[in-house]
Amino acid sequence: MNPLDTILSVTNLNKRYGALQALKNVSFEIKKGNVYGILGPNGSGKSTTLGIALNVVNKTSGDYKWFSGTMETHEALKKVGAIIERPNFYPYMTAKENLELVCKIKGISYVKVSEKLELVGLTDRQNSKFSTFSLGMKQRLAIASALLNDPEILILDEPTNGLDPQGIHQIRDIIKQIAAMGTTILLASHLLDEVEKVCTHVLVLRKGTILYSGLVDGMSANNVFFELQSDDNETLIAALKTHAAVKNIAIEQGKVLAYLQENLEAKDLNKFLFEKNIVLNHLVKRKNSLEEQFLELTNGK
Ligand code: ADP
Ligand code: MG
């Protein structure tokens, strides 16, 4: 892969706020064209991670590099569109005037204003004062503003917080549209279903530690298991241990759970066991839902 396809790489990032260690050896890579979600409960370090990458929070140790280190951070950040705070514009200016002001400050052509207003569905309201906007409209205006210079990556911190269901739906649709146009996206969210609906990749963060990073789909792929029962579970377990596809075995409420490391059809497992003289009285193939896995990953431990 072309090194320029790496938009951001973070290596062993640590952050302390006094005695509190907010990030512990956080490492990840953001590649061009994907949609990443940093998923974790409140206080897990999502905003801190984004703040450090955007140079508004100081790191304690570790490193991060934009665009494979081909440019200085402040130059690189000109190619980054970010919304990490509540949207804030001039209340008595219209949506259009506010965006034109941003263009003027950043040296961007005014033609971008109507294009981005259209993208976020605010064309009809472009001449309304910002103070008359709902929170959802304010958030959409903030997205339009962050996109004015056609950034390489859009960063959003909890983009749907505080919105009503319709507002949430609109924002998620817009994010998907922006992604479909090829813009890389990194968003932080404590909502599993948001990440599941919008993102291709996920970093699961808990108490400042990354518990999982990879494809959203991959999170469930390695979580297929069989629920089994026979009159003699000990013999059953011994047989399962000899099967190459079985990764590990657990017992739950009298049922034997066989977790897989590669695909295995129910009928093939059944045949394998039957040939070893094991007759099952229960055989179900199951998959942990993303929600179960997320809870498993973020609870306890
Ligand atoms: P998240 O965005 O996932 O909710 P944060 O990155 O905001 O998490 O916070 C991570 C941890 O760091 C939390 O325990 C939070 O209380 C703490 N924290 C965040 N910002 C500060 C700060 N400025 N001073 C002290 N502690 C902070
Ligand atoms: Mg936060």
TrEMBL record:
Any GO MF annotation of the entry: ATP binding
Coiled coil: none
Keywords recorded for this protein, A-Z: ATP-binding, Nucleotide-binding, Transport
Presence of keyword Kinase: no
SMART domains, alphabetized: AAA (SM00382)
Keyword Nucleotide-binding on entry: yes
Signal peptide: none
Alphabetized Pfam families for the sequence: ABC_tran
Domain ABC transporter: 8-232
PANTHER family xrefs: ABC TRANSPORTER, ATP-BINDING PROTEIN (PTHR43335)
Family: Belongs to the ABC transporter superfamily.
Protein name: ABC-2 type transport system ATP-binding protein
Organism: Flavobacterium micromati
